[in-house]
Specification:
By secondary structure, this protein is an alpha+beta fold. The chain has one domain (about 5-95): GMP Synthetase, Chain A, domain 3, CATH 3.30.300. The protein has three helices and three strands, in the order H-E-E-H-E-H. It has helices at about 10-20, 65-75, 100-105; strands spanning about 40-45, 50-55, 85-90. The mean pLDDT is about 90.
C-alpha cells in the first residue's frame, strides 16, 4: 500500500483543472473562456498526478496558438496535485461552434 499522498483524488484534481481552464481566455474571443469555447477535447487525470489534456484552437492558423498553449501549460502545471502534464494540440475533429457551451453561445449572441 502506498502513502496517502501517492494516490490523488482524480475527480477533485480534474475539477481544479477545469476551474483553472475556465480562467484562461483566447484574446481574440475575450468574452468566453477556452473551456466553454469547446477548445478542450479531453482531460485525463491519473492517480499519480499525471495529466493529459487534448485541446484544439478555433482555427489551425490561429496566430496566438503558442500564447494560449503556453498559458495552459504554465497554469495547469501550477494546479496543486498536478505532477506532470502532457498537452496535446489536435485539429481532429476540427473545432466548430457546436462545441461551445450553451453559456458561451448566449454570451456571444449565437443562441
Amino acid at each position: 500500500m502506498g502513502d496517502k499522498e501517492d494516490n490523488i483524488d482524480t475527480f477533485e484534481l480534474e475539477a481544479r483543472i477545469v476551474t483553472e481552464l475556465k480562467n484562461i481566455f483566447d484574446p481574440e474571443i475575450p468574452a468566453v473562456n477556452i473551456y466553454d469555447l469547446g477548445l478542450i477535447y479531453e482531460i485525463d487525470v491519473k492517480e499519480d498526478g499525471k495529466v493529459m489534456i487534448k485541446m484544439t484552437m478555433t482555427a489551425p492558423n490561429c496566430p496566438i496558438a503558442d500564447q494560449i498553449l503556453n498559458e495552459v501549460d504554465q497554469r495547469i502545471r501550477n494546479v496543486p496535485g498536478v505532477k506532470d502534464l502532457d498537452l496535446v494540440l489536435t485539429f481532429d475533429p476540427p473545432w466548430d461552434k457546436s462545441m461551445m457551451s450553451e453559456e458561451a453561445l448566449l454570451l456571444l449572441g449565437m443562441l
